[in-house]
TrEMBL record:
The organism's place on the tree of life at top rank: Bacteria
Key words of the record: Membrane, Nitrate assimilation, Transmembrane, Transmembrane helix
Membrane topology: Multi-pass membrane protein
Main localisation: membrane
Protein name: Major facilitator family transporter
Major facilitator superfamily (MFS) profile domain sequence ranges: 15-429
GO MF term set: nitrate transmembrane transporter activity
Length: 439
């Protein structure tokens, strides 16, 4: 094939739509066990720690796999890594659906570990986040990345809230087993659609067609692609790891996005156990008061970061999380209105902070965006796995009041994040972002 005859397929909008779609269908696994946590706790006789571990299970693979898979984007483009993660998630959902079909509700205690394993596999779909972040960033010029990434993450982040909202109602109407079988079918069909229609950014298409790298760079830039990968998977991880800014963003994301992952599953448990609420009503509160709110407002966080800088937006957002956590603690397990207000404020703060943090990734590490997205998205999202078992320990030690007291964890994390954001703003914000008066 002559190099000049090759035509690039797709467009930035197509790239954004398909990356968002792939992330949406995979990310739903965040709410995999939250709505059924009480059922499984009673059937399997789980302690608070084991319950928290089960709710958090998908977030382990969903966080750690982001690191190598996001860096893989710098080498292969986004389609192959994202497809691989979706296929692994399909296998996990298929295994879970099969187990429930044959054994639910007569589950044996030893099956907890099998359910946990299928949760780990299903969580591979959560790791699509960092892959899609890098895939989207390569399609768009820098001055449009904040808004594009805000749309990508905002729409994709709707999945846990929507599934956490729908699943409790489905459980009541058609039963647990049928609900999960339908979820498996949705994931399978969605994976096929992504494979058929997703396209890599111009540079990767050109390289795969056999065009020399120098020519591919020129032609990709002519198509509007500003970010060009500079090395292999390992090199991308190494290059991004050398930047202290990468690790600062990891800490911020551990609080904001790790917090989002953890509380999307945990808030349903919180409402059911603290206020003896039906799981359907708890799902509504989690979805509208936290998950969907955080997802939609993330777009605003990315847009504001384009305007005044991600560092400044982060300071405000983490302050909101801090205040929200204090409000939840003060509400205890007796003041519903106060607890709900705290949940809403935390959801808004986490959503805005998520948009702000990832606006900074391609700015601080432009030559290894995939690797940086892997570290930040992977280790940052690890908070979604670490925190729920800790919250479960508070329940074990303090009983019902432990559900509110556990939010002291987010008070401490928020204070840390505000300090780091302030240091970044002082050191880099005024250099990288336009001063407010120039906007």
């Amino acid at each position: 094939m002559e190099s000049n005859s090759f035509r690039i397929k797709g467009s930035p909008m197509t790239g954004l739509i398909m990356a968002t779609f792939g992330f949406f269908i995979g990310f739903a696994a965040v709410s995999l066990y939250g709505p059924v946590a009480k059922n499984l706790k009673e059937i399997l006789g789980l302690s608070g720690f084991l319950l928290g571990l089960l709710v958090a299970a998908p977030n382990l693979t969903g966080s750690l796999l982001r690191i190598p898979f996001a860096a893989w984007v710098d080498k292969a483009g986004g389609k192959i890594p994202l497809t691989t993660l979706l296929v692994l998630s399909v296998i996990g959902m298929g295994g879970l659906s099969t187990l429930l079909y044959f054994y639910y509700p007569n589950l044996e205690p030893w099956m907890y570990w099998l359910i946990l394993f299928f949760g780990f596999l299903s969580g591979c779909g959560i790791a699509t986040f960092s892959v899609g972040i890098a895939q989207t960033a390569y399609w768009f010029p820098e001055n449009k990345q904040g808004f594009a990434l805000g749309i990508y993450a905002g729409v994709g982040n709707l999945a846990p809230g929507l599934f956490g909202l729908v699943l409790p109602f489905a459980l009541k109407e058609i039963g647990l087993t049928t609900s999960y079988i339908l979820w498996f079918g949705f994931l399978l069909v969605g994976t096929v659609i992504y494979i058929l229609f997703a396209k890599d950014a111009p540079y990767f298409q050109l390289i795969k067609s056999g065009i020399p790298r120098d020519e591919a760079i020129i032609r990709a830039k002519e198509k509007g692609q500003e970010l060009i990968p500079t090395g292999s998977l390992i090199e991308s991880l190494k290059n991004s790891a050398r930047h202290i800014e990468t690790w600062a963003l990891v800490a911020l994301y551990f609080t904001s996005f790790g917090g989002f992952l953890a509380l999307t599953g945990w808030f349903i448990v919180f409402w059911v156990e603290s206020y003896d609420m039906e799981v359907r009503h708890a799902g509504l509160l989690m979805a509208f008061g936290f998950s969907l709110l955080a997802s939609v407002i993330r777009i605003f966080g990315g847009w504001m970061s384009d305007k005044i800088g991600g560092e400044l937006v982060s300071i405000v957002a983490f302050g909101m999380i801090l205040i929200g956590a204090l409000i939840v603690i003060s509400g205890g397990n007796t003041n519903f209105s106060v607890s709900l207000a705290g949940e809403i404020l935390m959801g808004a703060g986490m959503g805005i902070a998520n948009g702000a943090v990832f606006k900074l990734v391609p700015k601080y590490v432009p030559h290894a965006t995939g690797g940086a997205a892997g570290w930040v998205g992977g280790l940052g999202a690890f908070g979604g796995f670490v925190v729920p078992p800790i919250l479960g320990i508070f329940v074990q030690n303090f009983g019902i009041s432990g559900y509110s007291k556990g939010f002291i964890v987010y008070v401490l994390l928020s204070v840390m994040a505000i300090i780091i954001s302030g240091l970044l703003w002082k050191a880099y914000g005024k250099e990288i972002n336009k001063p407010i008066e120039e906007l």
